[in-house]
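Board notes (copied after class):
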Amino acid sequence: MKFMKLGSKPDSFQNDGNNIRYVTSELATDVTVVVSDVKFQLHKFPLLSKSACLQKLVANTDEANNEVDISDIPGGPSAFEICAKFCYGMTVTLNAYNVVAARSAAEYLEMHETVEKGNLIYKIDVFLSSSIFRSWKDSIIVLQTTKSLLPRPEDLKVISHCIEAIATRACVDVSKVDWSYAYNRKKLPEENGNDPNWNGVRNRAVPKDWWVEDLSELEVDLYKRVITNIKTKAILSHEVIGEALKAYAYRRLSGFSKGMIQSGNVGKYRSIVDTIVWLLPAEKGSVSCSFLLKLLKAAIIVDSGDMVKAQLVRRIGQQLEEASVNDVLIRAPEGQSTMYDVDTVQKIVEEFFMQDENAEIELPEEHKVQEIRKPGILSDASKLMVAKVIDGYLAEVAKDPNLPLSKFVDLAEMVSSISRPAHDGLYRAIDMYLKEHPGISKSERKKICKLMDCRKLSVDACMHAVQNERLPLRVVVQVLFFEQVRVAASSGSSTPDLPKGLKDLNNNSHRSSRSVATNPEEDWDAVATAEELKALKGEIAALRLNNGLGGSERNGTDRAAVTKIKGLLKSKKIFTKLWSSKGGQGENSGSDSSESLGSAIPEEAKSTPSRNRRHSVS
């Protein structure tokens, strides 16, 4: 730390224990200076020779009293004492912690060169420009000390000079950085003293974001001004600025790394969140999507304005493919019945798809306006990653017993246009919702199951589904049927057909069922029992075997399968729908097109734990 010593006489200020400071001298004191609750008993001559302010105050006092009150002096008693000691020629040491207070007090006391050459203001200004503003850490310390002295340091341009000095040094080429700085990294072996080959010379390159931890010590208003100055110079990359904002958030927002804000000064936290959002570089990717989502969670907790939250939603939507399931699990504000804020996630997904909308570009051509359509910019890989995240998100929010079905369905349908190879993630989400909401109606159960395409379930998912007593009967039958289609196709038959006997039986049963089943749709949408699931699996296994048999063997198996299937048709007349539609549609879904469960959504996203330790920006 830089310092400057003034004066040469020994310090003879004493304290009598009753908030009275005096100078030990053979001469009696002849003036009392009151600063707040402290009285200084001093001599007029040394004070008045250097302070125009005290000259005027003493001239206007009663000679019998000789007491002047300057309680409003910046820096209080300690700053005045520095100025008084300078007047007496006593030794006084200035450093980064007291120089601004001394400068402000000297300005208040009018200790200018016009009063006496080599006065205190001049000496402090030389110290600031030649030492303090040339030191990285001293400049930061000085800036921190200005808050309690406002507005005097602002008027004296000390703050602006300090900010300029800090911003300039932050933008220096890293090859020229040779001063000490804080950097939150795990120490290298040589720094721990564990490297036997270390020769004492540090060969490690200085990272581009070497300065971000040091600036995190600043209060938010000063931090904002420093970062704004750095951005204005347009020397550092937007990634480095983003790293600085990330470091500041983790340093200043307690609990931020966990996506929450611990109890404290809500107004202060709101100011920090709003400032960080305001300072975000405009370039996409300057900060991670995970960091943006943490900011959004913090903004919701501290009740930031709608503009702040809308800006974050827009930024997150542009990088949504980077998010994990844990990232998008945003807690609902207090007072809401649901556990998670699904509405906000819907807005984020909308922003994601807005990037893919056609853009209109107007170009003048022969005094006419020509419209050129630009194709969407979203890649298939990005869409798949987003669909995967939303599937995983749905599986998590489905555990909320208060989540309305409409919100689940609306969010799932937003990504239904994304074509992806598997629907296992969506199946898990649907199954979780059915498990946590057993009281939903048949129509609601049918609606949620329509979101997935049974043809896109993996073998493991199919095995689970055919044993799942929470699924409607139509879904179990479709899963079993498409599994048979898949097995048949893998054996060489691309469009496997049902045995002729089963087709005939299906037609007869369909006709006879009209007089028995009053409302077959209710049977179709009912939940399958364990016995029915077992019987269905057995019959599909028989169908698989039958697909591989020859003519006479096939006829024998047809008759046996017909006999076995009659029992199922008697218990559930509605099975005839599946068989009859199969006869007319070939390899398509077992239900008619209006009841197809075809939509598209991906596997559940794996949540990735956030890493709190920063990484160097190189």
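Comment from the instructor: The mean pLDDT is 78. Residues 551-571 form the longest helix (21 residues).
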